[in-house]
Write a structure and sequence with these properties.
The complex is a heterodimer of chains A (about 600) and B (about 400). Chain A contains 20 helices and twelve strands. In chain A, the strands form four sheets. Chain A has a six-stranded mixed sheet. In chain A, strands 1-2 form a two-stranded antiparallel sheet. Chain A has a two-stranded antiparallel sheet with strand order 4-5. In chain B, a hairpin with a 5-residue loop joins strand 14 and strand 15. Classes of the chains: A alpha+beta (about 600), B mainly beta (about 400). Chains A and B meet through helix 8 and helix 18 of A and helix 1 and strand 3 of B.
Chain lengths: ~600, ~400
């Protein structure tokens, strides 16, 4: 039995890169079409000789949020291109979060984890293009109506990522802290989306500034209380010799172990050593710093708020580097964590006091209607619309295959091929044999002529792998539909002691195979007869010492109706995850269909 | 209250809420398990001595493999016969013997849900197969052989536990008693669980725990009609927990070994069920011994005369071999192991073996009758295949 799939499986990585390459070509195609559309429409607009009118400026705070989060989405999309994403994302990112979350969150995340595990390449590429597309959309759409729709899409997708990927920021999970990312980076992405969706009227006046101040202030105060709450392991530094580390020291230590440039790991090691010795003081500074930022957001004096903003940005920056280790290092980092989004929000808050419209716009206020008419037909506007549509197209390049994968309950066969290699084509005739089935009826190679046969070897008292292989065969039978009538699933007993038919029947009852009409579990009337068949069919069976199961070949032959072996398949179920089992069933069903057709 | 104050209060409440939610909770108290984990077990018969005990990484059930060691009568050489099981032994082995046959039930583990059975009449030279198409219970007294080689087994599955009987060959099992059928016996205790089976001469004997008391119900079954012999209620009320450690039959009686726990204090009780001289109603008698605080039984061994040897670990006295002699109806202290023994095995001739397992290594030493000390231990390495039972 192999150890299972590793996140650096070359077959999966190669398929991932190939898919990304083809999809990139599609993106280029879309870009070319969009450019052609814009060039044509621009020349038509120029021919109309519409006078040039200064454009109304987008509120500065909005622009900061739009461009900031647009760039973040693109960065996240590129981070999703890391080779380890298809097989490493769920095991290294989602699963640790799910296992540390309340049961309902874990169940919710489990659904999406399942979809990803069943279709890792499709899912990984889908996320890449969705996030790059979303980022492009926010950046290129400017302050057009399309920008608002981009905001809405970012809100929805951010919410999805926050729930399915971050377990709702692990709110309610023990040991969480603002320093580690609470309440979750994607929540800020999502909130940014909803702000961008807000109509332009929402960006005028003081209401937004007030809400932003209170929202951010409230968050910082809540996180300060959590940080200072006793008994959560943040007040202690630790002693590495006794492996007794405080929560913060442990986090920094883990971060310093991830692959990263030397200067960063060296810096983290120093901070780790400092926290070990002065854990209490570090937490006091963090708690008071958060409280201070939060309280300053509730005062009415502009300069003090600015101090709060600067302090908040400083605190976020320091935490991002010294605790979160930039958030994306280590091979499966999917975003720069929660500090950069908060810095963007704080910066936007600082700019809500800036001019909302440009000086030229003040002059043009009386000519609002013609200006709007121009904006909606002008070349710049058309360019933004065309680019936004192109960005939507990029998103669809991810969404369409992703949705297709999510609706397919069978895992991709590439998983089993990554584990066991591709099926090996064969051309030899099936060796002769004659055995009895679970009901005592004789079955031989000649009695199977005319049928497509999947033939494997199963130990009838096996405790782990054989029951799984039997289930995979059963599932493959359900996947081939009406072709099942032309197919016989054959297993030859590979236990040298328990060879009587009552053991085969017990195994069938255990696995729910008794009612499967095309299931034949074969055995010999004597050990000698069975051993001869194993030898002819190239199966190795060995009694292991020390109380282990019988060791036997984990292979299957796919035999055509004329009695010729067409494929040799490795049936090792590896770590026997649901995805691997389903993947093998899918592959087996595909081979049976193919052989039945030809 | 201004909007600003409200927002401030909301932030404080949110912080308190998250902090409250995320404070680690205290561990839950351990759950009660009606069956005691299997302990190393050995039986002696005319074919020799058979001993089963776990080896490997005992904290990891997938890397714990129960072994089956055999010693021919009159020799001092042990051979490992576990290959005869031809499947993974992670779930444990249950031994049942009479004067002619030794049967082994392989407790199902991982994805196996039925119970392979093998038996031998020639000391392991050849083996035959039985089959129990259900999971045998984890009770150390879940499997027994009658004098005519018929079998008795306690099954534990989703439907509750029940008792099945098979004629020789151990393949055609039929239900002879369920918890419900025993509960319906008039005048008997209210049955909580069936915990053990054996034969009283050739009649099936069933032991149950009783609801609401620390009594032990003892039943015989004749043509699927259960009859209560006695509900033993002589235990002290302070006893909190009663568990069946094992039972064995001799030609005339059946011995049931119980462990009674009172807070941390442990007592062993031997219930001897035998038919009185007139051949009428069976009677039960009790002999008990106190093992003291924080004690536990580590292994159990019987010989064909019904002598029983218990390896007890006690914080105050260390390891101790305690032997029960049914003829004298008395316990006596036997040799103290020479090293940290995993199990003690009793032979028909009164000799005692001590086994010590550590990972894949096994050490065996012998204490001959009348001798003052142990022989030098011999060391054996067992070829365990870690990781072969899981993924």
């Amino acid at each position: 039995m192999s150890s299972g799939l590793k996140s650096n499986s070359p077959i999966i990585i190669s398929a991932f890169h190939q898919a990304l390459f083809y999809q990139f070509l599609l993106v280029l195609l879309l870009g070319s079409i969009g450019l052609a559309f814009w060039v044509q429409s621009r020349s038509r607009v120029l021919r109309l000789e519409i006078p040039s009118v200064p454009a109304k400026s987008e509120p500065l705070a909005r622009r900061v949020i739009r461009l900031g989060f647009g760039l973040l989405w693109i960065l996240d999309g590129f981070l999703q291109m890391q080779s380890s994403m298809p097989l490493g994302f769920t095991s290294q990112v989602v699963k640790p979060v799910a296992s540390n979350s309340p049961a309902w969150i874990s169940t919710f995340m489990g659904f999406f984890e399942g979809v990803w595990n069943y279709h890792p390449v499709t899912s990984a590429t889908a996320i890449v293009w969705i996030q790059i597309g979303l980022g492009l959309w926010l950046i290129v759409s400017g302050d057009t109506k399309w920008s608002r729709y981009g905001g809405l899409t970012a809100f929805v997708w951010g919410l999805f990522v926050w729930g399915a990927g971050e377990g709702f920021g692990q709110l309610g999970s023990p040991g969480q802290s603002w320093l580690f990312g609470l309440p979750g980076a994607a929540l800020f992405y999502s909130l940014a989306g909803i702000l961008l969706f807000m109509p332009s009227s929402g960006w005028t006046g003081e209401r937004l500034q007030r809400y932003l101040k209170r929202g951010l202030g409230g968050l910082f105060i809540a996180m300060s209380l959590l940080q200072g709450w006793p008994g959560r392991g943040f007040w202690q530094g630790g002693t590495p010799k006794t492996r007794s580390l405080g929560s913060l020291a442990l986090m920094i230590h883990q971060m310093s172990q991830t692959p990263q440039p030397d200067f960063l790991s060296s810096l983290l090691r120093h901070i780790f050593a400092f926290d070990l010795a002065h854990g209490w003081m570090v937490n006091l500074v963090a708690t008071l710093g958060l409280l201070m930022v939060g309280l300053l957001m509730f005062v009415n004096q502009g300069p003090l708020v600015k101090v709060g903003i600067l302090l908040g940005i400083t605190l976020c920056s320091v935490t991002w580097v010294l605790v979160q280790d930039l958030g994306f290092l280590g091979g499966t980092g999917t975003d720069p964590n929660s500090m950069v989004p908060q810095i963007i929000f704080l910066a936007a808050l600082g700019l809500t006091g800036a001019r909302w419209i440009s000086p030229t716009q003040l002059v043009q206020d009386t000519e609002e209607l013609p200006e709007i008419a121009h904006r909606q037909t002008g070349p710049a506007y058309r360019l933004r619309v065309a680019a936004s549509i192109g960005a939507c197209g990029v998103i669809l390049i991810g969404v369409i295959p992703g949705a297709y994968g999510a609706t397919h309950t069978s895992a991709d066969s590439i998983l089993t091929q990554a584990l066991n290699g591709a099926p090996q084509p064969q051309v030899s005739p099936l060796p002769k044999f004659s055995l009895v089935n679970q009901n005592g009826q004789e079955v031989s190679n000649s009695s199977l002529i005319g049928k497509v046969v999947a033939l494997t070897f199963l130990d009838d008292v096996c405790v782990s792998t054989c029951p799984l292989i039997a289930q995979e065969f059963k599932r493959a039978d359900s996947l081939i539909g009406s072709i099942s009538k032309k197919v016989v699933l054959v297993a030859i007993n590979s236990n040298p002691r328990f060879i009587s038919t009552n053991y085969l029947q017990a195994f069938d009852r255990q696995e729910g195979l008794s009612s499967l009409v095309n299931w034949e579990f074969l055995t010999g009337t004597s050990y000698g007869q069975l051993a001869l068949v194993w030898r002819h069919l190239g199966a190795l069976v060995e009694l292991l010492p020390g109380g282990s199961m019988v060791d036997h070949s984990e292979i299957a032959y796919i035999v055509g109706p004329k009695g010729n072996v067409r494929y040799l398949v490795n049936t090792d179920p590896g770590q026997a995850t649901g995805a691997l089992n389903s993947s093998f069933s899918g592959e087996l069903a595909g081979l049976l269909k193919e052989v039945a057709r030809t | 209250m201004s909007g600003k104050t409200k927002a401030l209060l909301a932030a404080i409440m949110l912080g308190l809420l998250i902090a409250g939610c995320t404070t680690p909770s205290a561990p839950k108290p351990g759950s009660f398990d009606s069956f005691r984990p299997l302990v190393p077990y050995s039986v002696d018969s005319s074919q020799g001595t058979w001993a089963t005990f776990p080896m490997g990484q005992l904290g990891n059930k997938f890397n714990t493999f129960w072994q089956l060691f055999h010693r021919q009568p009159g020799t001092s050489r042990w051979s490992n016969q576990v290959k005869a099981t031809a499947t993974a032994t992670n779930g444990g082995l249950l031994l049942a013997s009479n004067q002619t046959e030794l049967a082994v039930a392989i407790r199902p583990s991982v994805d196996l849900t039925f119970t392979p059975i093998i038996f031998t009449v020639n000391g392991g030279s050849t083996w035959s197969n039985g089959l129990l198409d259900s999971p045998i219970a984890r009770s150390p007294a879940a499997f027994a052989l009658g004098p005519d080689n018929s079998g008795l087994a306690l099954v534990e599955n989703g439907l509750g536990n029940y008792v099945v009987e098979s004629p020789p060959g151990l393949k055609a099992w039929v239900i002879i008693a369920t918890r419900k059928s025993l509960d319906a016996v008039k005048g008997a205790c209210s049955v909580d669980q069936i915990v053990g089976v054996n034969f009283l001469i050739s009649t099936p004997l069933i032991e149950t725990t009783c609801k609401g008391s620390n009594g032990l119900g003892v039943y015989t079954v004749d043509n699927s009609h259960p009859q209560e012999i006695e509900t033993i209620r002589s235990f002290r009320p302070a006893i909190r927990h009663l568990q069946l450690l094992g039972s064995e039959s001799t030609a005339s009686a059946t011995e049931i070994l119980l462990q009674a726990t009172q807070t941390r204090h442990l007592e062993l009780l031997v219930e001897t069920v035998q038919v009185d001289g007139s051949g009428g109603t069976p009677v039960v008698s009790t002999v008990q011994i106190s093992l003291g605080n924080r004690s536990q039984v580590s292994s159990l061994s019987w010989n064909s005369q019904g002598d029983m040897l218990v390896l007890a670990n006690s914080k105050s006295t260390g390891q101790l071999g305690l032997e029960y002699f049914p003829t004298r109806r008395a316990w006596s202290t036997q040799a103290t192991p020479s090293f940290s023994a995993s199990s003690l095995v009793l032979g028909n001739d009164g000799s005692i073996w001590e086994f010590e397992t550590s990972g894949k290594t096994l050490q065996i030493a012998q204490h001959l009758p009348g001798a003052t000390g142990w022989t030098s231990p011999t060391s054996t390495r067992v070829a365990l295949q870690y990781g072969s039972s899981n993924f």
